[in-house]
Amino acid sequence: MSDARPSEAPSLPAALEAIGETFPARFRAASSEALLREEKAKLLGKKGDLTAALKIMGSLPPADRKAAGELVNGLKAAIEKAFDERLGAIEAEALAKELAGPAYDLTLPSRAPAPRGHKHPIGIVRDEIVDIFRSLGFAVHDGPEVELEEYNFTKLGFPPDHPATDMQDSFWTTGGHLLRTHTSNVQIRAMLGKQPPFAFVAPGTVYRRDDEDATHLPQFNQLEGFLVDKRVSFAHLRGVLAEFAERLYGPGTTIRLRPSYFPFVEPGAEVDVRCVFCKGKGCPTCKGTGFIEILGCGLIHPVVFEHCGIDPQEWTGFAFGMGLERIALLRYGIEDIRLLVENDPRFLSQFR
Ligand code: FA5
After folding, report:
1. Is residue 310 in some structural domain?
2. Stretch 52-56: mean pLDDT
3. 53 and 142 belong to one structural domain
4. Is beta strand 316-323 parallel, antiparallel or unpaired with respect to 291-300?
5. Atom of ligand 1 nearest to the CA of 187
C-alpha cells in the first residue's frame, strides 16, 4: 500500500478546522434571529461551507472516510448546539428589552374605529312621528303588550263573540290576557280615571295571527293617537292627519279617506297614502290600487267614553292608529315589509 494521497486529501481536516474556528464568532456577531438563521444556512445549507467540505470526503481513501465522517458529524452537532444557544440568547435579550420598555395598557381602546350602532328604520320613523305629534301638542303615553281582554276589546265596544273580535285573530295567554292586537288599549288606560281635555300618542308593538306577506307581519308596531276636547269634529281629525302626512312625506302628499268600521269609533275611516313606488298607477306593492293603507281612524264612540267615566254629552274626540312598518315602507321606498325584521346588516346599514 502506498502512502501517497491525492493532493486534496489533507484539505478536509483543514477545511473543517477553518469552519470550527470561525463559526462561534459568526454566530456571536449575528444580532437577530434572521441574521443567525442566515449564518446557519451559510454553514449547513445546500451551498454551505460544511456541505462543500463533505464533497471532499468522496475523494478520500475508504480507510480514512470513517474518521472523516466522525469529524464532520461532530462539527455539525457543535454548530447545531451553538445555534440553539445563540437563538436562546437572542430571544432572552429581546424579551428583556420588551420588559424594560413602556408597559402595555390593555384597557386602552383600540385605534381601529369600532363600528358604531345606529337606529333601526322603525325606530327612526317612530321618533320622527312622535316629534311631529309632540309639536302639535300631543303627549306620549305607554301601555302594556300583555293586556286584559277588557282593555283590548270589551271597553272599546267589542261585545263578546262580536265578529270584530275575529277580525283581529289573537295570541291568547292565560287568565283572560292576550298579546295586544292594537295600541287602542292605551286609549282606555289613558282615559280611565282622568278628565279631558287631553291629547296623547302611544307607540308600541302589537301581535296578530296574520300570515306574512309584502305588507303584513304577525308582530308589528303601531302608533295610536287620540284627542278629547269640546266640539271635536271629523274636520279636526282630517286636518291633523293631512298635516302629519305632509310633514312626514313632504309637501303636496295626497291622503285618501275611505269609510270603514271599527267598534270604538263612529264614523270610522281608513287612510291611504299614494303609493311611492308607482306614483298611484298601481303596482304589486299596492296590489294595483295606487294607494297603501297606513291607518284607521274616527271619532271616539260615546260608549268608549262611558266605559272610561267620561260624559259623552260634554266631550268629543278623535282617535287614529297607524302601522309604523307600512309608514316606513313608503318613507324609504322599501318594497317588502319582511326586510324590516330579517336583521340583515347589509340592509340595515343603509339607515346609518
Ligand atoms: C287598528 O288596529 C285600529 N286599532 C286602528 C284605529 C285606532 C282605528 C283608533 C280607529 C281609531 P287596523 O287593524 O286597520 O286598525 O290596523 C291599523 C294599521 O296597522 C293598518 O292601517 C296597517 O297600517 C297596520 N297593520 C295592520 N295589520 C298589519 C300587519 N299584519 N302587518 C303590518 N302592519 C299592519
Report:
1. yes
2. 80
3. no
4. antiparallel
5. 9
